[in-house]
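Section 5.1 Outputs to date
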Amino acid sequence: MKKLLLVIDMQVDFITGSLGSPQAQKIVPAVKAKIEQYKQNGDKIILTRDTHDVDYYNTQEGRFLPVPHCILGTAGHEITPELNFGGYYVFNKPTFGSLELAEKIAGGGFDEIEICGLCTDICVVSNALILKARLPETKIIVDTACCAGVSEVAHRAAILVMKSCQVEVRD
């Protein structure tokens, strides 16, 4: 069985930086263990990075969420140091979900794709649903122990949406 681990936006700005939270900090050890498990099994691993330019305030997202974050070339854009040990591919995405990433993954012939990371209610759910739509017969899994949302309510709401769309949710 060909497996992929997709780790969403485990970046400094989402963990300890401008949009950091205790919930995000709490999942770092679990995400690290999951990456190490996939590495030991020889499975493919992709980490994404939310990526913005210095003109962030001039974008729709910047007007909606006026907190600069994950600006290319800044420390906040980088993968958190606890996970920055290599052995994976890094994909920069300019928005919540990425059609380009889905196409890249679709070409990999994966039987199973497991997703974890930040934020459950924004980037995790967006990419999970895009992948499920692009690959309807591929098993898509989200491990909630390795995810954190903007709030607990939003996290739980995203989990319900993913379950409704045939994404397997593991607690």
